[in-house]
Design goal:
- With 355 residues, the protein is α+β, with helices and mostly antiparallel strands.
- The protein folds into 2 domains: 4-184 and 266-345, Nucleotidyltransferase, domain 5; 194-263, 3-Layer(aba) Sandwich (Aminopeptidase).
- It has helices spanning 22-34, 40-44, 148-152, 156-171, 184-192, 202-211, 228-236, 243-263, 266-274, 286-294, 296-299, 331-343; strands at residues 4-5, 48-49, 79-82, 85-88, 91-99, 110-119, 124-130, 135-136, 144-145, 177-181, 196-200, 222-226, 280-282, 304-309, 315-320, 324-329.
- The strands form 5 sheets. A 7-stranded mixed sheet has the order 2-13-10-5-6-7-14.
- The longest helix is centred in the C-terminal third of the chain and has 21 residues, at 243-263.
- The N and C termini lie far apart (44 Å).
């Protein structure tokens, strides 16, 4: 297997962050519930809560946000190494999976994988984006791109579990919960919000007109109110630039959707969420979501830190037969990057429960 150094273009590393709008959905759920909205229980009732009796790293028992855990602060929170994975009771790690399940009879792949760390020890909200094309070992299967773990297990809850297990096995940090965001949720949320404003180039406009599936094909270079289909295709453009630029477009769409939520009235937000939250599946319990909501104003006001795995100079590029172009991460360096980012100087070193 030949490897060639492949360093991203200068300045790209700062732009490679959140891969889609999944964090927005979680944030809005917390904001609405935290505000004591009369519709909160109805909205939460739309989420598919997946029973999870056999979570991957055997530490996800009880309510993550009950007294004595993350929501209660760090006084009694323990940290340590559990089953070979770094874990801290004061840090809740939630894996958000954006799934491209748009083809009939295809479970899709987790093309967006972002670990949201609610860190009450350091008072931060941390986002770790995992690049989908990383070539990694997938437990029970042959090595492949990271986003295929979800596919190999048939998608849904089992797919999410294998994605969690794969990231834990390769990068050494415990993941507490997952949230799956269906592909079709994107278009519906944007349309229910009345579209999003985006500034596009002539080349991007031409591709959106041709391939988005929207009947309106009058876009040119400039700022336009894009429909769900148009914004969705814009965020997936591959024909202009590389995957780093594609990720930058996704960040721009995310920011525009966030701005739209901020400027929308409660009725519009409620309508958008009530029509789309049924497309969200999680192994968090309803009590855990409510528990997070009770602390939402605190969590959402934490400073946000961002990380990408693999980072600059942490991988090489290669072409694998039967797999295609991949990023081959330096796992030792990548594991350290994940751990240092999430746990900072408080990296757990003892066996869990003995400190």
């Amino acid at each position: 297997m030949s490897k060639a150094n492949n360093t991203p273009k200068k300045g790209k590393s700062k732009k490679i962050i959140v891969r889609n709008f999944a964090i927005l959905i979680l944030s809005v759920i917390l904001l609405i519930a935290g505000m004591g909205c009369v519709y909160a229980d109805q909205l939460l009732g739309n989420i598919n809560f997946a029973p999870d009796t056999s979570t991957p790293s055997q530490v996800k028992t009880g309510n993550l946000f009950e007294p004595g855990t993350a929501s209660a602060g760090t006084t009694s929170a323990k940290s340590g190494v559990l089953g070979g994975l770094y874990h801290d009771d004061a840090i809740t790690n939630i894996l958000l999976l954006g799934v491209d399940d748009y083809q009939k009879n295809d479970p899709g792949r987790s093309d967006s994988m972002m670990l949201v760390s609610v860190d009450t020890r350091h008072k931060k909200l941390k986002l770790t984006s995992f690049m989908r094309d990383m070539y990694v070992a997938i437990p029970g299967h042959t090595s492949n791109k990271l986003n295929t773990a979800y596919h190999f297990a048939g998608g849904g809850v089992e797919g999410a579990k294998l994605a969690v297990t794969t990231i834990e096995a390769n990068f050494g940090t415990d993941i507490d919960r997952y949230v799956i965001i269906s592909n079709s949720a994107f278009d519906q949320i944007v349309d229910n919000l009345g579209g999003v404003n985006m500034t596009i180039t002539a080349g991007e406009a031409k591709l959106i007109n041709q391939y988005s599936g929207d009947s309106r094909r009058n876009l040119t270079a400039g700022t336009f109110l894009l429909s769900g289909k148009q914004a969705h295709y814009y965020s997936r453009i591959r024909m202009i630039g590389d995957d780093f630029e594609r990720t930058e477009r996704q960040r721009k769409v995310f920011s525009s959707i966030a701005d739209k939520f901020k400027s929308s009235d409660l009725g519009t937000i409620y309508s958008a969420l009530s029509k789309t939250l049924h497309l969200v599946t999680t192994n968090m319990t309803k009590d855990e979501v409510v528990g997070m909501a009770g602390n939402s104003l605190t969590y959402l006001n934490y400073p946000i830190s961002q990380n990408r795995i693999p980072g600059d100079n942490q991988y090489t590029s290669d072409t694998i037969s039967g797999v295609g172009m991949v990023l081959v991460p330096n796992l030792e360096v990548a594991r350290k990057s994940v751990a240092d980012f999430i746990f900072e100087s408080d990296l757990p070193t003892k066996t869990y429960g003995n400190n």
